[in-house]
Design a protein that fits this description.
About 25% of the residues lie in helices and about 35% in strands. With about 150 residues, the chain is an alpha+beta fold. Strands 1-2-3-4-5-6-7-8-9 form a nine-stranded antiparallel β-sheet. The longest helix is centred in the first third of the chain and has 20 residues. The chain is globular and about 40 Å long.
Length: about 150
Amino acid sequence: MKKILLILVAVFSAGVLVAVADNEKLIDKSRLPIPAQQFIDSHFAGADMLYAKEDCYVFFSSYEVRLAGDVKIEFSNKGNWEEVDCRQSAVPAAIVPQPIKDYVDKNYAGERIVIIEKNRKDYEVKLSNRLELKFDKNFNIYDIDD
């Protein structure tokens, strides 16, 4: 009897996790967290939004926004940007920390930052020449990938 009960609990738990893990839905811009809306309005004013998507997890949500011009922005559940991918153009200069701008200007003059990603530990940027640079939270470069 205990084995049957244990199996039923395991099957039910797995079903709940699968159902929650794949819970993404299209949303209107107004359903994005306020900081995400402000970020888009400030740095991508006038860009047409193709879609906004909310990915719901057990304890939080994350957001992905696609804009015209092949721009993808990922936001945390609080609306803070985590990745800006502009593939065809440069990332808005205002969101790139000055030490990273200075490093790229000095060492890779003429190259554009087309992707920037940040998390608690570091920043990663991809340049228009496909070079990837990784900076720690103090903006010291610690890795270069080509």
